[in-house]
Amino acid sequence: MIQGKHIHLIGICGTAMASLAGMLKQRGFRVTGSDAAAYPPMSDFLSSLDIPVAQPFAAKNLIPSPDLIVVGNAISRGNVELEHVLDQRIPFCSLPQILHDEFLVGKEVLVVAGTHGKTTTTSMLSWIFDSAGLEPSFLIGGIAENFGSSFQLGKGKYFILEGDEYDTAFFDKGPKFLHYFPDSVILTSVEFDHADIYKDLDAVETAFKRLVNLVPGRGRIIAFDKGESIERCISRAFCKVERYGGIAKAEWTVSNLRLQPTRTTWSVLHHGKPWADFEFELGGEYNVWNATAAAVLAASYGISKDQIVEALKTFKSVKRRLEVTAQVNGITIIDDFAHHPTAIAGTLTALRSRYPGSRLWVILEPRSNTLRRNVFQHDLANSLALADEVIVANVFKSESIPEHERLDLAAVAALAKKQGRRARIAPDADAIVQLVAPEMRSGDVVAILSNGGFGEIYEKLPAKLKSLGSASIGTALEAPAKA
Q1: Residues 254-281, buried b or exposed e (16+ Cβ, 10 A)?
Q2: 29 to each of 50, 235, 240, 402, how far by Cα in Å?
Q3: Where are the beta strands (DSSP E) in 234-296?
Q4: Alpha helices (H) along 190-276
Q5: Who has the most CB within 10 Å: 42, 101, 178, 373?
Q6: In order of start, what are the domains of the chain with their CATH numbers?
Q7: What is the pLDDT of residues 42-68, one digit of tens each?
Q8: How far apart are CA 466 and CA 470, in angstroms?
Q9: What is the pTM (predicted TM-score) of this model?
Q10: How many C-beta atoms surround the C-beta of residue 308 within 10 A?
């Protein structure tokens, strides 16, 4: 396209869409967008780029007509802007399509894919390449704290991408990552997820098999060593496949893992022989796997061990990934994007090692299309029971889920209680804040889990705790809470 043309993004506040908006503006396009509602961190991010965001959706947002519309994958028929686009025959495309055509052609494309860990692993890989002076481009589904951004258009030949298996657009129901034509892939995990678009695990595996089938023979796949699904997905790869993890058959294995309150250390062996020793400030075993995968792929592109070790030592994190958002009266509040029982278990286990001896609260909004359904109901209860206190909000937009498929909150609470945890249900963020704030005491750690704005609970809970004051909170739970 010609620079200076007007591109409008419908659903601009999604993490990938906001990043694309920034990339397009940097390329010289005039960029606008619209969404139903904007909330941090992407609303702040777009504001910092001086990209106007219209709220809510309305046909008037497209007058005069832009030169091109990018339709986010969350946008469905019936959306007033989309209907206007179709009625007026304004040219439109998907995010993956414009990403490929405008930014990926001519680049060496490295894709990080998998059910879990994509965002953090992509951020780590990008930081390693950047620290090594390779000036990569990248697109990440979150704000990488080392860069203060979710994207970068570098001068180097590498483009590092988070590869999402979710569908592309209302007119293209295939996975986004099939548009990226990767030269190399990291495959972190394969589990059933996105229950709104995948019928079962077999359908999910089919998507990943198609991704594997796109990697050229000269390319490389770095795959986690655990899980029959991963085994099936890589079984017919035409390129070199290297495994990482903790079992003997993997080429790259982790040993001497130490999860401490302020840092994590581990060693990596290559074919059983010492290769490198690593450390960083992040918690959680899953972050060790993420970092190891990034290190292995970086090494395959000629980056030295010393450069990789130093880059990971200075790696910070990603917004909304075990992010400490407030500390009030000795109470630590943490925001995490966990949206699947496996991710929730990983998050809470990481917090146990990071804050030993603290009472751990988990406050969950079942918002993802998988969590809103009963497909993982028992697994969800088991994951939540890793905390001491469990609070679950009403299912987000529950009316859009058929009743026979809908998550049964009472059943989840009952299963958690069987494991000795107090589990309660509250309708929304306001009710939760009123319920839990008076019960919290100094030393508590509160994990708030949602992949959305969660009724501004991230601001409301700290404000309520401040209003109560340390004296009120300190005496609120002198006696044990009743079950």
Answers
A1: beeeebeeeebebebbbeeeebbebebe
A2: 13, 43, 39, 42
A3: 240-245, 252-259, 264-270, 273-280
A4: 201-212, 228-234
A5: 42
A6: 6-93 (3.40.50.720), 106-313 (3.40.1190.10), 323-476 (3.90.190.20)
A7: 788 899 999 999 999 999 999 999 999
A8: 8
A9: 0.86
A10: 24
